[in-house]
Design goal:
The protein is an alpha+beta fold and about 90 residues long. The chain is about 50% helix and about 20% strand. It contains 3 helices and 3 strands; from the N terminus they run E-E-E-H-H-H. Strands 1-2-3 form a 3-stranded antiparallel sheet, with helices on one face. The longest helix is centred in the middle third of the chain and has 23 residues.
Length: about 90
């Protein structure tokens, strides 16, 4: 289950567990409106992605990633590396 928490800095963080490890990432937003809408959507996407991985449906996960990653949000070498791992 993914969850949201607002930290003393004012930023919202997304936290989730996968494979016995806990992960926490800042959503880089302090906006209450954006935090409520987009942050909850981020939780939903994380939960959906974990379900896809657990079901062994990584092809769909990778396809969704490639369709939704914003342009210029990753360095070209990072995208290359991600695609290399997706093809394994």
């Amino acid at each position: 289950m993914a969850s949201l928490k607002r930290y003393p800095s004012g930023n919202f963080h997304l936290a989730f567990q996968f494979g016995g490890s806990r992960f926490k990432r800042s959503l880089k937003t302090k906006s209450q409106c954006k935090g409520k809408g987009e942050s909850k959507a981020a939780c939903s996407r994380i939960e959906e992605n974990i379900a896809l991985i657990e079901a062994g449906r990584t092809e769909q996960l990778f396809s969704t990633f490639e369709e939704t990653v914003p342009a210029d949000s990753m360095e070209a070498t990072s995208l290359y590396t991600a695609r290399m791992y997706m093809n394994h």
